[in-house]
Each structure stands twice: as C-alpha cells, then as structure tokens.
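Revision sheet: structure tokens.
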Amino acid sequence: MISIQQMHYILVLSEELHFQRASERCFVTQPTLSMQLKKAEEILEAKLFDRTRNPIELTEFGEALLPIIRDTLSEYNRITDLFNRKKGTFKEELRVGIIPTVAGFMLPDLYTTWQEELLDVHLTIEELKTEEILKALDQKKIDVGILAGPVHDPKLRTIHLFQEEIRLYYPSTKAEEVQADALKNMRPWLLTSGNCLRTQMMNFCELRAHQQEWDYEGGNIELLLRMVELHGGYTLVPENYIQSSSGDYKRIVSLNGDVPAREIIALTPNRNGKWKQVERMLRSVQLRYSSPSKGKYQLLTWS
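Predicted:
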C-alpha cells in the first residue's frame, strides 16, 4: 500500500495542480515528488493525475481516492496527538474559517476570551468568503466555519450562533428609519463579489449589478463607510460591526414592518473528533452575541 508520505504528496499536488509549487510546499525537489507519485501509481496500478493537461488534472480514479486520503491523514494525525497528550504537551489545533464581515467585529471582541478560556487549544483563524469556507470544510482544511446562513448540507452539522440586524449607514438623512422601497433609487456602495453581505444587500434592496453609478467596489466595510462619508450614497452594515451610537446608522423597515437581519451559524463536519473544543469556542460566541430581537426580523439569504 502507498505510504503516508506519498498520500501527503498526492494531497498537496491535488491542491496545487503544479509540480513545482507542490514540491516547494512539501520541501522536496520536483524529481523527488515525481518519483514518489510514480511509485504510488505503480502500487495502485492506476494513474492519479492526467499530465497531458495544463494544468494537470486528477483522473477519475484520483478523484475517488482523494477523500479516502484526506480521512486517512486525519486519522494518522491522531497518533501524534495521542503521543503529545501522553507527554503532557498536547494542544488541540482548531482551524477556523470566518467570513470577513463577521471577523471584523468577532476577533477583536473575543480574542482575549479565547486566550483565557481555550488554554489547551491552538487557534488558527483565517478570513474566508462563504464559498471558500464550504470548500475548505469539504477538503478538511478547517474544522469549523462561521458564516451567514442558511446552508443545507447533510455532511455538515449546523449550529445557530446569533441573529443580527442589518443597519443602513446613510449620514445625509436625519430620519431614524428608512423605508426599504426607498433604497431602490439611492446610490449603494457594495462589497466585492463573493461577499455574502453584498448578495444579501442586492437582494433585499432589489438592486441590479449594473444599477449603481459608482465604478468602485470595496473589499471591507470600513472602507465603504469612509467612501460614504466622502462621496455620499449609503451602505449596509451588520449591527455588531457598529462601534458607536451615531445616529448615522438607520433602521430599515419594509412595508409590513419587517427589518432585515442575517443569521450567523457555525458549520462543522458531522464526524468531528475536535467537537469538545469546537463546542467551547462556539458557546463563547453565543454568550457574547445572543440577545432578544429588537423587531420583526426578515432573515436574508446569502445565495
């Protein structure tokens, strides 16, 4: 059977689809990587990659083998964990993906709490867009994802964290509330494509991709707030992102009295050997942000 090292090489190459980049990630020469891949294919009596394509591609057999390799490497790493536990030096690595519009307030808010309460956990946190989180979970690159719901996947466990209202940043009006219908004819500043808050904003405000007169789309909320201040228009901001009680943040109300909101959820594989650590981390999120709703919420979808 192929070795653990060969499995690692196959996994990295499947992600890079480029021999030079894969060899650099594996800290070996390209000939060494190629030789080990060839040996693995001889043992398995099947080609794993189609080298005639540019970039190379997994073969049908390679595609079928990849999930098994991921599971095997994950189980193998538990041996190292067991050894470190025996020595008393073990820290569970918890890999977390968080969408940027949540990371912007959650990480500053909870960093100290996690440092104090998760002493036996090494947190690795990465900002990822929603689709990137779903892909990373599928490829076992992260243990838990924090994002806006809903997501329906039988392979994943969904944990409700909290709901938060979406507010309107519109300094040029003194009104405390703005009717949702009125936003159709106003000028929006949008996040870049791939951010779920952008999609929620466009759907709720019934905007079209070509509607706005602006020729710029921002990569983070703070930049959009600044652009509104300098050039007018408006943008939408999650309630927990708001750090001040400024009257520039307005409530949006639909004709039937609903206010827009989003549900923040966590996703983790159904089979997760790190569930105890995941649960402790997520409980701190729930305690920090869960609160009674301040109105009749209309939960927005991100897709």
